[in-house]
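PT: before anyone asks, these are the final sequences, not the draft ones from last week. 518 residues across everything. Please model them as a single complex and drop the result in this thread when it's through.
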Amino acid sequence: MSHYQHVKVHRQRALVVLPIVSLSLFFLSWELVVDFGLVPQTLLAPPSAVVKMFFAKLTSTAPDGLLLQEHAWISIKEAFLGYFLALLVGIPLGLAMGWFRLAEGLARPIFEFIRPIPPIAWIPLTIYWFGIGLTGKVFIIWIGGIVPCVINAYAGVRMTNPVFLQMARLYGATSWQMFRTVCIPSALPMVFGALQIALAWCWMNLVGAELLAANGGLGFLIQSGRKLGRPDLVVLGMVTVALTGVIIGLAIDRIEKKLLAGMRR
Amino acid sequence: MHNIKIACENVSKTFLQKGDTRVDVLKDVSITVRDNEFVVILGPGQCGKTTLLRMIAGFEKPTTGRVLMDGQPVGGPGRDKGFVFQSYMLFAWRTVRGNVEVGLRMRGVPKAERRVISQQYIDMVGLTGFENHYPHQLSGGMKQRVGIARAYCNDPQIMLLDEPFGQLDAQTRLYMEKETERIWLQEKRTVIFVTNNIDEALTLGDRIYTMKDKLPGTLCNCYEVDLPRPRESTDKEFLRLRKQIIEESELVL
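LR: through. Structure below.
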């Protein structure tokens, strides 16, 4: 007989039922509030109208010129382009700042100066520089996404167990060898944390950027809804931002678990 | 034949804690260790014995006094000194072989040669067959075997062991002591072994330095353990010496 036996673990019923109750109540009251005229239709679209709009926008480019999936695709493209560029620059920069005096001394003051500027504050300048196309938005997303990358990679290196470094020194390691063989592997869990945080930042800044400077994308869709006085379009844009964000978050979660499992073995 | 390998001459160490609090950790400690001798430094917790070992390793500089190796002041940590840490300090992301080879890799020894050397020491500590295991798959005793193999693999002139079996259970500890003796007899090195366990000290040491119970740490006595190896902890002379050490050092056991 095996020592391992499968047992059924029941999830607490409250945690299964209550979310359904709360979501149903939320949508129902939203629908009723608008249907009974407590909130005028010009200010808020009921869920039924949003669902209708959702299906309509899958095949119709009216009134903003693009299909819903085209908007979503533009946004995803921009977000990931900015995200990968942020990782590409931010993580090596943070790692280097954590270990090399030169890198920290030179880069830290500039980084600390730029860090508190909200990414959307860069919008006017980016419009001057790049217009309202892809480049400008990618730039804004990049500026936002780079911050958590640098901070986490830096902290990860700083948290390296000092005894490991002493040991490496005992074995005659050079500074570069200590950085490569001790600091970077020690920092990896923090770096993985940055992947998640940076993506969330990128996604948020993307919508901000598109609200002000865009000719396509989910933020642009929301903005078009406002200009055309179409709350159903506005809400549809918001809901799509949320859904896409959730899907990307889950995907990153999966990838991270796979990578970490591969590392622990 | 009995060259002096390590000499600490009137070594004192003072630390600054929180920037402005002076702590005298060691005061006026002088010890000598001969070539290929197994010396144990025995003392209770917080008596400065680890600090002494860390100064011999070159991790710390003495505040006053000198630490000499082959008559030369110890400069800094380097590959001539092997160190085994109480908390193992293995790289979680490297296999047993990867951990054992760390020193060789840092020196740029080619892979084929690394394999041969590391295998020799993995076999020596009895980890044959576990080369590709990761530290989290090993028991405490096995982890410390990796630590010992890693230190030996670098071919150091002296081996410094800082309470290496402090985290092991009693049986594993006894077993590892026997193993340590076997390895030392097989690969003679100058060994300085720090412990708070009197039986461990008597089982392993050619000589035992005892340290006093409070800061600043000072030396208490030095005992020659002239017993044949392997030693039996029920041996009459063993027990007599044990009693003597306890009485003279006021060790609280």
